[in-house]
Amino acid sequence: MAHISITVNGKRHEADVEPRTLLVDFLREHLGLTGTHVGCDTSQCGACTVHLDGRSVKACTVFAVQADGRSVTTIEGMSADGALHPLQEGFREEHGLQCGFCTPGMIMAAADLLQHNPDPSEAEIRHALEGNYCRCTGYHNIVRAVQYAARKMREQATVEA
Amino acid sequence: MSTYAFDYARAQSVDEALTLLAGHDGEARLLAGGHSLIPAMKLRLTAPTLLIDVSGLEDLAAVTLDGGHLAIGALTTHRAVETSELVRTHCPALAEAAAGIGDPQVRNRGTIGGSLAHADPAADYPALVLALDAEIEMTSRDGTRTVSADDFFVDMYTTALAAHEMITRVRIPVLGHGEGAAYAKFANPASRYAVVGVAAKVSLADGTCRAARVAVTGAAPKAFRATAVERRLAGRPLTEAVIAEAVRGLADPNELLSDLSGSAEYRAHLCEVMATRALREAAARAA
After folding, report:
1. Of A21, A68, A130, the CB nearest to B103
2. Domain at A130, CATH number
3. Helix or strand or coil: residue A100?
4. A58, A60, A61: which to substitute to probe chain B, counting the most B Cβ within 10 Å?
């Protein structure tokens, strides 16, 4: 067993885990954070996307021990004080989901994009979501949801400045 | 559980990593970004008893300009290669290739050293390092040695890297005046691995090709140079007609892979198409 200490959504968690425990299993089964989904389990579909030290990663392809001492953000950490994150709001407003299975991963991947590109083109959004599969929507409304969030986040940044 | 059990150690220095590696008689593996190794472990294709996590060795995650070479630390992520100003300035083809690996999440984790050590036959970097005439620096407790990319790839998933060695740096000559390079890939739509990818580097003088290097990945069990194509280009102006004639018959389907992504005959055709695109772009950049 390995002793790990990971900050998840701002809260530090200590645990003893087998080194082969995947980060996604640690989040879901040890911490009960089931918003991060397991889709393909082969680093392709992106359903398990979380942020590790602020960058999007596929949690099915990271061992929990690799995240020891680091900071993880999951979909559960996106809303603040009961208010939806602009991306969450965008997916609702623009009907960016049907079954919803891919949505947490889509939001985490899009959040990484918007961190370093606050005004992405449609092509840039599609390129940034290449690692996330949706088998329902055909992606159009997902792109609109990200555009909605980008717009709202730029407006918020302007108001704050 | 997704993999066989293993022990885990986080190395604080290259020396510590090499000592652990040497002490486990081929049973230990280095873990960098893990985006080749962990999938292989999940498929139970490999079952190391110890993973030595080297991802914290920041000295090996830098890109520097070293004389006439770009020195890229083995732990440089694909994303860092993609966004490095030095790489974009001195070897844009490499930055473009990095930008086409997998997807953003993969590029945030995967490293150039890890990709080269794994030597997946469909990985992008092997074609780039061959065409760009790179050197791979490898370190063990016995010292450091450097091999040319030409001597590095041995077979599918097999390289010149010994079990007790780690890749520490990749050295790539910066493009000089009259030189251009490009990479053209036909990607699998799901994985973004190369069904066929061709990297080309050309040197022009007075509108004539002085030298060309053309390397192919994805098509065969290992990345290879198309030396016959290179010879046919030397001394000639890189017109459409010259390129079309030079790439004809680039690969023999009998020596190519045949799988769900495409038959050997299909790949042979793609080799010619991707080589044409890479050479056309490399020539335009060199002019």
Report:
1. A130
2. 1.10.150.120
3. coil
4. A61
Q: Domain range spanning residue A152?
A: 86-160
| Residue B14 three-state SS | helix
Nearest to B45 by CA among B36, B57, B32: B36
pLDDT attached to residue A45: 96
Tokens 């030595």 appear where?
B52
The Cα angle at residue A53 between residues B105 and B12, in degrees rounded to 5? 105
Are residues A155 and A96 part of one domain?
A: yes
A20, B5: Cβ pair inside 8 Å?
Answer: yes
Q: Contacts of residue A63 in chain B, CB cutoff 8 Å?
A: 8, 34, 38, 51
10 Å Cβ neighbour count for B66? 12
Percent with pLDDT over 90 in chain A: 95
Cβ–Cβ gap A57/B108 under 8 Å: yes
Q: Looking at the structure, do residues A94 and A73 belong to the same domain, yes or no?
A: no
What tens digit of pLDDT does each residue of A12-71 get?
Answer: 999 999 999 999 999 999 999 999 999 999 999 999 999 999 999 999 999 999 999 999
Query: Given a cut of 80, is residue A161 above it in pLDDT?
Result: no
How close B14 gets to chain A, by Cα (Å)? 18
Percent of chain B with pLDDT over 90: 96
What's the fold here for domain B7-53?
A: 3.30.43
Pick the last residue of a domain from A49, A77, A105. Answer: A77
3-class state of residue B111 by DSSP: strand
Say how far apart CA B26 and CA B228 lie, in whole Å. 38
Instruction: Please state whether beta strands A49-52 and A71-73 pair in parallel, antiparallel, or not at all (unpaired).
Output: antiparallel
ipTM of the shown complex = 0.96
Q: Which CATH superfamily, name and number, covers B179-286?
A: CO dehydrogenase flavoprotein, C-terminal domain (3.30.390.50)
- Are A66 and A98 members of one domain? no
**Residue of B51, B75, B83, B105 best to disrupt the A interface, most CBs of A under 10 A:** B105
Class of domain B58-173: alpha beta
Tens of pLDDT, residues B263-281: 999 999 999 999 999 999 9
pLDDT of residue B167: 98
Using CB atoms, which residue from B39, B55, B105 is nearest to A42? B39
* Residue to substitute from A36, A58, A72, interface B, most B β-carbons within 10 A: A58
Residues 43-72 of A with CB under 8 A from B: 43-44, 46, 49, 52, 55-58, 61-63, 65-66, 68
A143 and A125 within one domain:
yes
